[in-house]
Specification:
This protein is an alpha+beta fold and about 150 residues long. About 50% of the residues lie in helices and about 15% in strands. The protein is built from three helices and four strands; from the N terminus they run αβαβββα. The strands form two sheets. It has a two-stranded antiparallel ribbon. Helix 1 runs antiparallel to helix 3. It starts with a helix and ends with a helix.
């Protein structure tokens, strides 16, 4: 693996985690949205990731232990953004314009505490990728210094 591969892996992680933070921010912003263009309350969204594997790495690791799938990859890719299928929260508020005939309002299935925990997790993962990228950059600079000497 080259130093540039390590940088590319970290960059893919930072890109994925930035998208995850954007989706979490969107969830928090819509935590009280009871009416959407599709109808009904806003539905919480989640980002799906997958490992990006190189053919050489995959083949080598599968020969070492065919019973276990390889755990080493070449980065991360976003598979997609999906809606959380959990039901909306019901809040009794007969005065709300979106209340049903029983006085209940269908609120988004967004839990602010869970979103904040996810945001902290995404932030820490982003910071870890920045640290790995800076370490790779530092190693490349040291290698250039050795080559000059």
């Amino acid at each position: 693996m080259s130093i540039f591969s390590a940088m590319a892996i970290s960059a893919s992680g930072m890109t994925a985690e930035r998208l995850r933070m954007d989706v979490i921010a969107n969830n928090i912003a819509n935590a009280n949205t009871t009416r959407t263009p599709e109808g009904g309350p806003y539905r919480r969204q989640q980002v799906l990731f997958r490992a990006v594997m190189g053919d050489a790495v995959r083949g080598y690791l599968s020969r070492l232990d065919p019973a276990h799938p390889p755990a080493t990859g070449l980065g991360v890719a976003v598979v997609g953004i999906v809606r959380d299928p959990s039901p909306p929260r019901l809040v009794y508020d007969p005065a709300h314009p979106d209340a049903d005939q029983d006085g209940y309002v269908h609120m988004p299935n967004v839990n602010i505490l869970a979103e904040m925990v996810d945001m902290l997790s995404a932030t820490r993962a982003y910071e870890a990728n920045v640290t790995a990228l800076n370490a790779a950059k530092s190693m490349a600079l040291k290698a250039l210094e050795i080559g000059r000497g």
